[in-house]
Amino acid sequence: MSEMNIKQNKPPYMMIAILFVGAFVSILNETLLNVALPSIMTEFSVDATTVQWLSTGYMLINGILIPASAFFIQRFTNRRLFLTAMSLFTVGTLLASISPTFGILLSARMIQAAGSAIMMPLLMNVMLTAFPIEKRGTAMGTFGLVMIVAPALGPTLSGWIVEHYSWRMLFDIVLPVAILTVVLAVFKLKNITPQRNIKLDIFSIILSSFGFGGLLYGFSSAGSRGWNDPFVYGTIIIGVISIIALILRQLRMDDPMLEFRIFKYPMFALSSAISIVLSIAMFSAMILIPIYIQTLRGYTPMESGLLMLPGAIVMGIMSPITGRLFDKYGARTLAIIGLSITVITTFFFSRLDMEISYTSLMILFTIRSFGMSMVNMPVMTNGLNQLPMKDTPHGTAMNNTLQQVSGAIGSALLITVMNTRAESKAAELTSAAIANMDENAVVSVQAIATMQAQIMNEATLNGINFSFFVSTLIALLALALALFIRRVKPNENETKIPQKKGATAQLNTVVK
Asked: What's the main place this protein lives (predicted)?
């Protein structure tokens, strides 16, 4: 059956719904555990560095396996791939729920991550295959519910559950949904994606693991360990060298594991650049607002999560609407409007004080979320539309990998900027306080402690504001790049990518 015939048939909505639910619970699970880490530390008597591996390890497995997803999607049928991935995720969830030791819980999280890593690229690839290019915006807009809303709902949902129940309930509520998804997939899932008889290059997997894994771990550790830690800059250096070696190896291969030649398509390259910049800017609010709300203003983690909930709801409502608008108007107009809103609201966040109300913060964050909902999926879809169908697995794998890495880089960058600025401001305020102090005055220990607390609060607030200002400049860069977006015509997705001789001859597309 040809690609054209696939697209002329009615899209398999039931199948997409099953994939949708599977991807949603797996991505939701990535952020679900963060609020529960203190409870897990207490139950298993582990320190903060050890328990953090429940999040870091999950992220690392994703970073290692997502680049390889292009190979898996091309080599195996979407039915077999989804059943394998969802089964792994379900087994990991069950094991995590009943885990008697921290080691078993960590192993369970790794198994979950192995299943979760393939979900997003697979769902994106199925949707790009099932829908014609002129309807992909609406389809990918619905897909945005998974990519945007699931991670945003995680902290709020887990905050409420941990406050009222055991942390194990986080896995107990996901488990029946995961089991039901597997059962439905067995009976309802069909094969629609093309397969190619290609072989996996083991050395490419090794380079990819060291490359993306090194970058993710290095940058995600920089916030807590500091940039001077040999382990931080050592893993980043290993990551960079491995990725350079990976790129050079892939460019010499007829059937690469991850096709870097797709960056020769200008709209895909531009969409990737905008997505990277936007991911870095997006993490400013997700990281800095909880620090401001909880550390400086004294709100609970639950209240911090609730503040972000309206923004997540708005993004969920807007995602399919934005998809329809993309089909009608293209990505450029939406991206310019959305990024303009993002720039303005991020700048307002750079002027926080201790008086701004909780409601005002919620409204500002919600407006910012509204702006960002108009950018990511339209820009990404426009870039993917320029790729020929055989290269969409590489495009989806590349996009998901870059988002993982840029998210880690963004969080490390903004935490570093905040800490550096706060330390500098604290030193400046301390010097000023000492200079203004009367040498003959007797100052109590309590007064000194109060003054130090005030200095630290003011310095931290200054650091947060400066990080938001840096984030504003990053968002401005994304806005400047958005001016160069042009709409991809339907016939462009059949353009052939320049390949070495013999690559097309090995193409053996079979749709069962």
From this structure: membrane
